[in-house]
């Protein structure tokens, strides 16, 4: 059975000691209630809900799955009750605007809440999670009337929402969308088409589901420039928000998947369903992309959630399971064998998980602060800066953290040996659940093209330059030439980090030059380039966490072991994980010829 | 739906052009029938059986699983019929001795047969596969009477066999085995205990199952030196081999697993089951280990099988699925988008699979030739040399090929995007099925300790020296200073390969020295060291395949494209995969301190 305890100490460390969340909140008058006391109290409540209500449904939901019959979906046992408790607790409204019933707390806190819930039970957390996307769309692009009609219900959690993008013939390539929207003459539209892979597209948690649908108006231009966005509710409602009759959208089936089995993935058939246009005609994709970054950070989270859950359980197992004697000499002579945590390779696997969980958490929280600024700052320049930075870091977070999440979950299975393969323990479920994360919301390959092609090359390296200036600034500030009292200890992090950043810049310039002559360099380098970037960014956060820990240890602090452990984990990261950039640095620069020269007919001779 | 065609061209290429199987067979008079014509005919029949009978049961068996009721296991629909066809076709007896009804063909051919069957349906193939282990044990250590009683039935396939090692408290650490064997005074023993994770431990394919069981005699020494080996049949039989009554072994349950669901993994309860001692008292583990290498090669095969199956299906999908335009310019203007195989990163994933499948196949066939020599050579020196070499290369093959098998299967899912996550396509099943391969028959960590601790350090590097002399000999022989007509083209492989081998040797020496002072170096370096070794060994075989292809192309040969494709795949391997050794080379040398310094209580602060 899986166990989970919310990492409240780590959350506090990041918010207070590393990322200065409270000075950050103080910049926004509307966040004046977001004090350490309130937030501690909220997170403690949240932890209880996750540990006591969501976690126990994690493995049972995987076993049971969702049930589909006659267009209706029944979620696994306990999901509905947990959702009702969630709504009653006001969790859905936590970081949404006061205007439509939200509690107005910072978006970053909503993300931290999502992390805990997603770790305890990712499948369950997808139902409320998808709503945030729909809410953001309506909030940013909806008319006042639309906001009044939909946003209040969604903020309460009385209704949930979805994003309907994918169709059978296209996922990434949304220019191929075929779903049609025909004006009815009364301001509404008749939507007809098939959408697939719609998470939370049908379920029994709420009476209504608000679909945000990509579709084409008649005579719309071909491709991506002819797509508009529509609100299509499952049920119509009257002025008072009471549900009236059924709209023309029906769930045709749900997918039988590798994992996240408690989360219903629906095929939705729209047959002259009544919809409302949201945002300008033919600008549907632009509207969608305005909050794509936040959605993708929400998916990046899954990598961390899987890593944390797998780590916590692998660690306990490794302390208990007895096998062989330590090569360096018997550790527990009174037992039949030593616990496997004595073996260096088991420790390597555990520390890899630990380094990814904690390093990734820092990366996510950094992005969450940017999201606060983007959504709440009155300073247009600061807002733009944050948006630019978030745009740069998002593909790295999404792809890198989900890839290392898959790796970590697999390491968790490996620590358990053969038992890791048995369902009962839950470790293999984490592997199956997290496997989707490198696929949805843009595959790793798509994130990598976004990073190298759009964010780096199109900006002529500006976004990288600005980020690497930040990192190098930190390095200079903490290094031998500075007044940092911990500079001697920090050197082991600063030196490889600054070297790696310099190489990152150089490789980027070289790739830009090569790509001018041969566009295939972009695609051939992209994934290795992204993973390189990920290790460097994570290295930056590990260095910051080490610096913060040295600072705390220099003062009077109670939980000294906590800070010592951070520093030692940083050492592990830089010695055992960071050198992965060496290989990536070589392979990303390889000529695309080795990929492109083989005619596709010659790839197999069967 | 998964498709599969046996790679007969690649098998032929390896046997004839690269690894000189026929001159090798000629060394053994008993293999005189193993001519190219006969073998081609056998493999064509085998391919038909795999493609038409086994493959169609692959996904349905995953869906259905095995059924357990009252101690009995029902295998998935179609398994029994396929098994009967297999036995009727004489497939089980292919490479077993004539004396007990075998066909006496080389063991290497048995392995190639197992590869095809395992690719088409690994779960099914485990039932006859496990028998080979039992047969080898009886063949090597059984008395004439035991051989007569059991070997004929097992060779026919009328009965199957198992290996019963693992118990709830121990898998790797067999010294903890508790199952007891009490002498009955009549030469038989009463076996009592619980064995878990017994593949093919109970099923409905045959009327009898012969268990080979590790157990302790009364007053046996503690630990590994007090374990003996027993033959414990599920059903007793009379002198004529007719089944009589039930023995005291009952299947208590079967495991609910991540994958290989068609393969029953049994908990076996032995309650005063009657068994016969096989081999000397207290020498059970030694007896087991005599054929552990071959068993592990059989498991290494799973990495290749998964890679091949995933590659074949991903390749077809990549040619058909249309998404986006190639960055280097539209490839298919008359279609709505270009097929995804135009995108460099998709090609990178496919070529990675291809390089691992074909490179891994060469490694396995090399090992298979060694097995022929070990089992059939009359030249004791040659036999010993082969055994030594196989012992060195086995942990590399087992761990490296299964690790890259897991990677490849995941890449196959990634090529399919979101569809890869849906069961229907079968791609996610390959990931689930192959995931067991790095766990059973010794985890990757155990293989790595075997390699670095036993095979390298205990032999003072002799085994590595002898193998690397072979590789460096090849390098010298094909390089610029030789008379090789293809030396100019071969240089791009020879140079990095010989450099990597030199570094391999240096690192080994340095690790040996460090390990003398600190034993934890062995465990901390081991897995990275093993993976480094794997990439180098695979590089050696890719270089050999390239050389063989150049040689073929220099002559009059029909399928020139086949050889060109081999060379280009070798180029891909050396440019995009081989550089992974750079990072491994760094991390394996890191001080174990970064793994060991954190007290286990400080690994978490929840």
TrEMBL record, chains A, B:
Q: Write down the InterPro entries for this protein, in alphabetical order.
A: Acyl-CoA_dh-like_C_dom, Acyl-CoA_Oxase/DH_mid-dom, Acyl-CoA_Oxase/DH_mid-dom_sf, AcylCo_DH-like_C, AcylCo_DH/oxidase_C, AcylCoA_DH/ox_N, AcylCoA_DH/ox_N_sf, AcylCoA_DH/oxidase_NM_dom_sf
User: Which major enzyme category is it?
Assistant: oxidoreductase
Q: Where in the numbering of this chain does the Acyl-CoA dehydrogenase/oxidase N-terminal domain appear?
A: 41-157
The Acetyl-CoA dehydrogenase-like C-terminal domain sits at 474-599
User: What chemistry does it catalyse, as a reaction equation?
Assistant: 3-(methylsulfanyl)propanoyl-CoA + oxidized [electron-transfer flavoprotein] + H(+) = 3-(methylsulfanyl)acryloyl-CoA + reduced [electron-transfer flavoprotein]
Q: Which SUPFAM superfamilies match?
A: Acyl-CoA dehydrogenase C-terminal domain-like, Acyl-CoA dehydrogenase NM domain-like
List where this protein forms a coiled coil.
none
Q: What Gene3D superfamilies does the record tag this protein with?
A: Acyl-CoA dehydrogenase/oxidase, N-terminal domain, Butyryl-CoA Dehydrogenase, subunit A, domain 2, Butyryl-CoA Dehydrogenase, subunit A, domain 3
Q: Does the keyword Flavoprotein apply?
A: yes
Which keywords does this Swiss-Prot/TrEMBL entry list?
FAD, Flavoprotein, Oxidoreductase
Q: What does this protein do?
A: Involved in the assimilation of dimethylsulphoniopropionate (DMSP), an important compound in the fixation of carbon in marine phytoplankton, by mediating the conversion of 3-(methylthio)propanoyl-CoA (MMPA-CoA) to 3-(methylthio)acryloyl-CoA (MTA-CoA).
Descriptive protein name? 3-methylmercaptopropionyl-CoA dehydrogenase
Upper lineage is: Bacteria, Pseudomonadati, Pseudomonadota, Gammaproteobacteria, Alteromonadales
């Amino acid at each position: 059975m899986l166990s989970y305890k919310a990492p409240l100490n780590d959350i506090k460390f990041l918010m207070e000691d590393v990322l200065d969340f409270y000075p950050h909140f103080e910049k926004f008058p509307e966040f004046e209630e977001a004090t350490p006391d309130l937030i501690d109290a909220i997170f403690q409540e949240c932890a209880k809900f996750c540990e006591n209500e969501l976690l126990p449904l994690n493995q049972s939901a995987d076993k049971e799955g969702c049930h589909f019959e006659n267009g209706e979906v029944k979620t696994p046992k306990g999901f509905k009750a947990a959702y009702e408790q969630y709504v009653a607790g006001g969790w859905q409204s936590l970081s949404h605007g006061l205007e439509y019933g939200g509690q107005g707390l910072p978006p970053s806190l909503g993300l931290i809440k999502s992390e805990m819930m997603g770790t305890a039970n990712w499948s369950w957390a997808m139902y409320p999670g998808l709503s945030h996307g729909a809410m953001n769309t309506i909030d940013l692009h909806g008319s006042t009337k639309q906001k009044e009609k939909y946003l209040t219900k969604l903020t309460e959690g009385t209704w949930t929402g979805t994003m309907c993008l994918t169709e059978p013939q296209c996922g990434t390539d949304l220019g191929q969308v075929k779903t049609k929207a025909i004006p009815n003459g009364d301001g509404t539209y008749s939507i007809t088409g098939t959408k697939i892979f719609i998470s939370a597209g049908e379920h029994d948690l709420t009476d209504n589901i608000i679909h945000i649908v990509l579709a084409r108006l008649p005579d719309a231009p071909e491709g991506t420039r002819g797509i508009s966005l529509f609100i299509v509710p499952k049920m119509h409602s009257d002025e008072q928000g009471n549900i009236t009759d059924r709209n023309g959208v029906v769930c045709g089936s749900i997918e039988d998947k590798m994992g996240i089995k408690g989360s219903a993935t629906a095929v939705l058939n729209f047959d002259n369903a009544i919809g409302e246009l949201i945002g300008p005609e033919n600008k549907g994709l632009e509207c969608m992309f305005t909050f794509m970054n936040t959605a993708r950070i929400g998916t990046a989270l899954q990598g961390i959630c899987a890593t944390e859950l797998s780590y916590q359980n692998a660690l306990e197992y490794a302390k208990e399971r007895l096998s062989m004697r330590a090569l360096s000499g018997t550790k527990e002579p009174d037992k039949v064998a030593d616990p496997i945590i004595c073996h260096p390779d088991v420790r390597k696997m555990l520390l890899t998980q630990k380094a990814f969980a904690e390093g990734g958490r820092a990366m996510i929280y950094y992005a969450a602060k940017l999201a606060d600024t983007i959504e709440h700052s009155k300073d247009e320049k600061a807002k733009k800066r944050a948006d630019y930075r978030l745009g740069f870091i998002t593909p790295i977070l999404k792809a890198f953290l989900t890839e290392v999440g898959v790796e970590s979950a697999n390491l968790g299975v490996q620590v358990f040996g053969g038992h890791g393969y048995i369902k009962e323990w839950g470790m293999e479920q984490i592997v199956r659940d997290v496997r989707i994360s490198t696929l949805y919301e843009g595959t790793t390959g798509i994130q990598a093209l976004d990073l190298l092609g759009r964010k780096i090359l199109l900006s002529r390296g500006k976004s990288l330059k600005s980020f690497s200036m930040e990192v190098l600034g930190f390095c200079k500030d903490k290094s031998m030439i500075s007044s940092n009292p911990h500079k001697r200890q920090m050197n082991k992090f600063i030196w490889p980090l600054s070297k790696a950043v310099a190489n990152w810049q150089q490789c980027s310039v070289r790739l830009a030059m090569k790509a001018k002559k041969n566009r295939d360099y972009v695609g051939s380098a992209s994934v290795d380039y992204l993973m390189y970037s990920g290790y460097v960014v994570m290295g930056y956060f590990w260095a910051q966490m080490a610096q913060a820990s040295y600072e705390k240890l220099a003062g009077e602090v109670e939980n000294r072991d906590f800070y010592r452990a951070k520093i030692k984990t940083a050492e592990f990261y830089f010695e055992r994980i960071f050198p992965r950039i060496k290989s990536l640095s070589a392979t990303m620069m390889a000529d695309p010829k080795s990929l492109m020269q083989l005619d596709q007919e010659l790839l197999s001779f069967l």
